[in-house]
Amino acid sequence: MRPAVSGVATILDGTMADPSSYRPASGTIPESPGVYRFSDPRGRVIYVGKAKSLRQRLNSYFADLAGLHPRTRQMVTTAAKVEWTVVGTEVEALQLEYNWIKEYDPRFNVRYRDDKTYPVLAVTMNEEYPRLHVYRGPRRRGVRYFGPYAHAWAIRETLDLLLRVFPARTCSAGVFKRHGQIGRPCLLGYIDKCSAPCVGKVSADEHREIVEGFSDFLSGRTDRMVRRLEREMAEASENLEFERAARLRDDLGALRRALEKQAVVLGDGTDADVVAFAEDELEAAVQVFHVRGGRVRGQRGWVIDKVEPTDTEQLVERFVSQFYGEQHALAGAADDAAQPVPREILVPVLPAEAGALERWLTGLRGSRVQLRVPQRGDKKALAETVARNAKEAFTQHRLRRAGDLTARSAALQELQENLGLDQAPLRIECVDVSHVQGTNVVASLVVFEDGLARKSEYRRFEIRDGAAAGHSDVAAIAEVVRRRFRRYLAETAGDTAPAGSGEVPPEDTVRTGIDPETGRPRKFAYPPNLLVVDGGKPQVDAAAAELAALGVTDVAVCGLAKRLEEVWLPDEDDPVILSRTSEGLYLLQRVRDEAHRFAITYHRQRRSQGMTASELDGVPGLGPARKQALMKHFGSVRKLRAAGIEEIAGLPGFGRRTAETVVSALHGGNGPGPTTEGEEQR
To answer: What residues does the GIY-YIG domain cover (predicted)?
Structure first.
């Protein structure tokens, strides 16, 4: 692959770019296939695409702005640079496009947002004793997932049926550890719906074998399990083991009831994913039915923002490459048995580059994958069902989205007007401080983009000058603002991208904030349009003074006082009063409350750590590592106080003398505490 770069716009004030200012000369763009990316003035990649002819595709972006798709027009006027990489084959283009989208998360690319958070059944194969539990959230390596299911109760109902056949652990880590310490299983262990590995009724290998049988059954290997139970039931009956035969009969009934809940939709036992779309000019909904062994094992939906005119063929190509690329990347070593790419993918239309897409999918799976449009029979009927689900999901999404999008747009517009901002505050950051009478002083910084929380950008601060600050939130806020924007200046100063080819003056450079080694944005590389502090005039003036001292002039500051929800601006004697029904005030309240929640959570964590460690402070021979080892093993000082000398001495890194010192210190020097047999001293 061969990289090339076009011109770069010179933008220092954050205004929209004229695409002609960075348009590359037509003759410099190759006609070869390749992958291209647009970047904004700060170096953040905002769009990634691929083309059979880079020249033809890129020239289309620099046509008359009035004739462009609204979001394409917004993208090219937001960008300040375009780069491209020439590739040799269509498969290389697919792979590079997928890698860049995953690496840069471009804001203008098609984004797949779950239209609801579907629960799945997770099996933690990466643990010594794997656990079965209901889960919502991002996929993790080493964990097997079954579903998604429409409702959490459907998962629990399936579990309840199957646990009598596969008595695997379903408890949390805390419950598992507690019952191991007390030496008694939980209720499920007594009623034979858990094999009780916590108390050693089965070994780790035996428990893993149970879990693997459970996973095989949900993966579609049902006939083998049913036949095995039927054979064992017959043998038990012949041997006059009637109680065992009755138990196997009940197990067999439970398996059959679980199978009845998953109707056969494809009689040939096919493993396939069925994909359907419903769309308009701006958005589209995707629905996928996962069919394994001829039965529907899960259903999932997404909603897509279209950035440029996109037909169904292009939607199919983008969805298949992004979805299965991510599923393959998430498949850990423990999940090898659950193939993330099925043998068949049934789609409404074949994309123009279906052959390249099939070859790429075949490489991911390790065996042939077919991309097909169903024409007749069961597969066509199922595809029509999936299409009806997509249309229904799209209708419901538009009803919800209309109110949400309108409210967020109104909120940003109100803030721009009422606070006198040059532009709508698309990125808002908020600082809040939490402490108890000046102790354990911490602060939070939360980020909202386009009116929505961006949790990956949240930051926590331990106030270094907490003692000097005393009870003053003003000093703490000033410290956080100073540290946050010092980092911003340090990460962007000296990291410059030339505004054109050849030698350019230092003032004609654009700070990128991109780490040259990793190619990823640095943590504090992007400043907010609006900085909100939790407080009134003193807090706002302190934050503004810090920004002025650092020379940061393009960040607006305001404060939201809790008492009357007044909005304060720097150097103003009177607050701005927003209507109680104002969408702008509601957004500021949500940002402030989220910062408060995040700060309180961190403060409680710091305080609990201090409280648990405080009783061990000053014990001779106990450094931070040993204190951490004790708390990790026993869980609390109360349980440590109840432990015997031999139990403590048995921990790695502890001897008997150290154990005696710990026990003596925890019991106030009045004897050694519990005996080695665990009986309390009288």
So the answer is: 31-110
Encode pLDDT of 416-458 as tens digits: 888 888 888 888 999 988 876 666 688 888 999 888 888 888 8
The whole-angstrom separation of Cα 419 and Cα 530 is: 10
Range in 63-67, 147-151, 307-311 with the lowest mean pLDDT:
147-151
Residue 565 near residue 539, CB atoms below 8 Å = no
Which phi-psi region, left, alpha or beta, contains residue 197 (left: φ > 0; alpha: ψ -120 to 50)?
A: alpha
Q: Which of 197, 217, 132 is nearest to 171 (CA)?
A: 132
**Cα–Cα distance measured from residue 176 to residue 186, given in angstroms and rounded to the nearest whole number:** 9
Question: Quick one: 130 exposed, middle or buried, by C-beta within 10 A (0-12, 13-18, 19+)?
Answer: buried
Phi, psi of 528 (to 5 degrees): -80, 160
User: Is the distance from CB of 80 to CB of 11 less than 8 angstroms?
Assistant: yes
Round to whole Å and give the CA distance between 314 and 50: 11
Q: Amino acid identity of 428?
A: I
Q: pLDDT by residue (tens digit) across 524-575?
A: 667 888 999 988 888 898 999 998 988 888 889 999 887 677 888 988 888 8
DSSP state of 361: H
The token pair at 368 is 């042939």
What is the Cα–Cα distance from 406 to 390, expressed in whole angstroms? 24
For residue 558, the model assigns a pLDDT of 92
Helix (H, G, I), strand (E, B) or coil at 278: strand
Domains of the chain: 2-109 (3.40.1440.10), 120-260 (no CATH), 268-309+344-394 (no CATH), 419-431+453-595 (3.30.420.340), 615-666 (1.10.150.20)
What pTM was estimated for this model as a whole? 0.47
Q: Are 634 and 465 in contact (CB under 8 A)?
A: no
N-terminal to C-terminal alpha carbon distance within the chain: 79
Who's near 606: CB < 8 A, 6+ residues apart?
Answer: 440, 442, 462
Q: Measure the CA–CA gap between 628 and 284, rounded to whole angstroms.
A: 51
Distance (Å) of CA 45 to CA 57, 143, 254, 519: 18, 31, 53, 10
Take residue 14 and report the two structure tokens written for it: 């954050």
The residue type found at 179 is: H
Contact assessment for residue 232 and residue 252, using Cβ atoms and an 8 Å cutoff: no
Whole-number Å distance between alpha carbons of 424 and 527: 14
Paired tokens of 156: 């629990």
Please count the residues of the chain. Answer: 682
What Cα–Cα distance (Å) separates residue 541 from each residue in 432, 488, 573? 15, 20, 11
Q: 505 — phi, psi (to 5°)?
A: -65, 155
